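Hi support team,

I've been running sequence recovery on a batch of backbones for a student project. Most finish fine, but this one hangs at about 90% for roughly twenty minutes before it completes. I'm not sure whether the input is malformed or the queue is just slow. I've pasted the structure tokens below so you can try to reproduce it. Let me know if you need the job ID as well.

Thanks,
M.K.
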């Protein structure tokens, strides 16, 4: 396939180039606690061996920054950092990496009395001073509440507006060394959001990904469908496949990404499987340093196995690994589980049903799933509460 790529501007990220017709870069993220330096370095190495062009690491505290400094000294990998709640850490993080990713929704909530433009200016000035690129990372579950309220049910519109506002802020500040991502766990929304933004700002390089795609093979298929539809239209300059995987298998994200790109380049496309248009849908995040209990990965697999009997039911179950994205990104699922250090919060839609131990949550989830299926078949919409 020889589809013409969008003529986006060139963004340098350390030794690699994104946009401007450069080969589509494949990246991934270390699913470790950053302060566990040896484990993080091991994952960076696994991802590099798999062919990652860029590896992202999360930072949320001064101790994370200290660990990142040692990691930087011990690897030559091209590194991106994911700022969590504290955008001001960029000042000490930027000199250690090649790209800084910030979430506009999180930026809204931090230092609420300070204008967003002032915060973005701080990030742009820091990036300029440290010779690093930025990523404006808009995420479906954390769009700022002002835009969420303004757009109502059009959550894709809210995502695109958030990305557009921040792109305009950076442009006005004279900083154009940035890429944008618009991610959702629903591949349709990923396609819609990126099409809308690319039509509005065709010169801005786009990072593609289906967030919380889940476990293989379904997670790979969801991502493949989104990439096929976007990249075949010239949209996309760098990609990440987000999968829930055991530690030693993390490189599968990169291998899956490269396989998808190779197939698209060769004109090998897959049809959309039936489960994507109906039936059971399991959403789970790829795990990262925010995960507060490693039992999350096993739980996600157990939920998938437990719910296999319901494969024909139109039910979405979301299994999330942390308190940052867990609460918001389970709201749209029929059943949501977001995992804490010692227990799991079980939700029915946006309502919390209860908090259960890792040893009892699977049984409680099965009970709730049975309730949801019974109600669907009966044509009712009532909520049940498990005590």
């Amino acid at each position: 396939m020889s589809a013409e790529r969008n003529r986006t501007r060139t963004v340098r990220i350390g030794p690699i180039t994104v946009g401007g017709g450069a080969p589509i870069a494949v990246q991934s993220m270390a699913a470790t606690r950053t302060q566990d330096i040896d484990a993080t370095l091991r994952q960076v190495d696994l991802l590099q061996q798999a062919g990652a062009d860029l590896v992202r690491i999360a930072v949320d505290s001064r101790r994370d920054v200290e660990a990142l400094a040692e990691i930087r000294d011990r690897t030559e990998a091209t590194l991106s950092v994911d700022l969590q709640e504290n955008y001001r850490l960029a000042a000490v993080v930027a000199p250690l990496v090649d790209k800084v990713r910030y979430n506009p929704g999180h930026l809204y909530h931090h230092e609420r009395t300070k204008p967003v433009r002032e915060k973005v200016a701080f990030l742009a000035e820091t990036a300029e001073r440290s010779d690093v690129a930025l990523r404006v990372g808009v995420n479906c579950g954390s769009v700022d509440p002002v835009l969420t309220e303004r757009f109502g049910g059009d959550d894709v519109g809210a995502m695109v507006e958030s990305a557009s506002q921040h792109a305009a802020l950076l442009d006005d500040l004279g900083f154009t060394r940035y890429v944008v991502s618009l991610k959702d766990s629903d591949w349709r929304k990923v396609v819609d959001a990126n099409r809308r933004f690319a039509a509005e700002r065709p010169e801005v390089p786009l990072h593609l990904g289906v967030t919380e795609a889940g476990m293989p093979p379904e997670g790979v298929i969801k991502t493949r469908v989104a990439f096929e539809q976007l990249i075949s239209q010239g949209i996309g300059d760098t990609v990440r496949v987000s999968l829930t995987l055991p530690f030693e298998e993390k490189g599968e994200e990169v291998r899956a990404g490269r396989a998808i790109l190779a197939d698209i380049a060769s004109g090998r496309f897959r049809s959309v499987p039936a489960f994507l248009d109906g039936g059971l849908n399991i959403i789970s995040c790829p795990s990262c340093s925010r995960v507060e209990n490693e039992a999350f990965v096993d739980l996600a697999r157990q939920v998938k196995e437990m719910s296999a009997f319901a494969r024909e039911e139109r039910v979405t179950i979301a299994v999330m690994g942390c308190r940052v994205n867990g609460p918001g990104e389970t709201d749209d699922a029929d059943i949501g589980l977001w995992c804490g250090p010692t227990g799991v919060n079980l939700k029915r839609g946006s309502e919390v049903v209860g908090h259960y131990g890792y040893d009892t949550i699977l049984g409680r989830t099965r009970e709730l799933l049975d309730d949801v299926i019974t109600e669907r078949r009966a044509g009712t919409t009532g909520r049940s509460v498990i005590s």
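--
Follow-up from support: It reproduced on our side and the slowdown came from queue contention, not your input. Residues 141 and 329 are 5 Å apart (CA to CA). No action needed from you.
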